[in-house]
Amino acid sequence: ERIGVLGIPFSKGQSRVGTEYGPEVLRNGGIVRKLQNLGCHVQDHGDVEVIQVENDDPEENAKNPRTVGLTSKLIADKVERVLRSEDICLGLGGDHSMAIGTIAGNARVEPDLVVLWIDAHADINTPMTSDSGNIHGMPLAFLVRELESYVPKLPGFEWLSPCIHAKDIAYIGLRDVDAGERKIIEKFGITAFSMQEVDKYGINEVVERALRAVDPEGKRPIHLSFDVDAMDPTLTPSTGTPVIGGLSLRETYYIAEEVARTGRLSMVDVAEVNPLLGDEKDKKLTVDMTISVIQRFFGNRRGG
Ligand SMILES: N[C@](CCCC[B-](O)(O)O)(CCN1CCCCC1)C(=O)O
Ligand SMILES: [Mn+2]
Ligand SMILES: [Mn+2]
Ligand SMILES: [Mn+2]
Fold it and tell me: Over 149-181, what HEC string results?
């Protein structure tokens, strides 16, 4: 497998400083070398250029729209270029608004992709249903074709056309879903396995059902968007919106190993690592746990 690593040092999809240092701490944690040690061919493509628009006033309750929109276009362009020369792109974020660009870019190369969204949150608020105005809680709303008429065209987003269908998405790990998001998930029948289903069926059954729901014939490329807050905060404390009762390390490993086993992984987003939150121990734990999970997307199996 040829892996292209792409840093996405972005934080303007939310209001806490720090996620812009995510790529740096993950690289310093040795992710490139660790993947090479797995026998992968790893090329580091550097960082996406981040655009900072002056006087970027909120629009329709969405914060930093121009900065997020224009940076998302650069992310999409870079992801498309990486995926033209590599088999898989590993996007190191950065807040979860990064997924607007990574999915848009991936879809240009793999138009038939499906999305597995591993997260405590649904990240599908429209600017109107969001209570925070933080675009990291909205990325999927900008990407889903069925939501196009519900999402205003924000300044900076002129370049973006929705590129996935609601039925192409499956959630695992949900435990903090807003009212508006629940309505959207129900209305469009989006496949969603919350932590309750993980407890009810077990992670093996959940992963099997999620994959079958979005890709019953087992042939579509997979965009895996991993928000580190999907894991229990005892494992990844340095993140902006922690929610107790999360995935265990072994459950998260299992998801990664099963997705790797499909052989159809196209892109992995690693979102919401914020090394400025918590103490040094929290930061190191978060980085170490995140890197150990990433390795399992790329062939490190507990069974050897
Ligand atoms: N849904 C939230 C949180 C989004 C998290 C983004 B992610 O997953 O990338 O980390 C919820 C906001 N709201 C905060 C106050 C209490 C109720 C929920 C929002 O801001 O939209
Ligand atoms: Mn989240
Ligand atoms: Mn998220
Ligand atoms: Mn978060």
Answer: HHCCCCCCCCCCCCCECHHHEEEEEECCCCHHH
State how far the Cα of 225 lies from the Cα of 54, in Å rounded to an integer. Answer: 29
For ligand 1, atom 1, the nearest C-alpha belongs to: 137
Pocket of ligand 1 (CB under 6 A): 96, 119, 121, 123, 125, 130-132, 134, 136-137, 178, 227, 229, 241, 272
Q: Name the token pair of 54.
A: 């002056």
Q: What is the pLDDT of residues 103-114, one digit of tens each?
A: 999 999 999 999
CA of 292 to the centre of ligand 4 (A): 19
Q: Separation of 178 CA from ligand 2 center, angstroms?
A: 12
Average pLDDT, rounded, for the chain: 98
Mean pLDDT (whole number) for 195-199: 98
ipTM at complex level: 0.95
Residue with tokens 């889903």, as numbered in its chain: 144
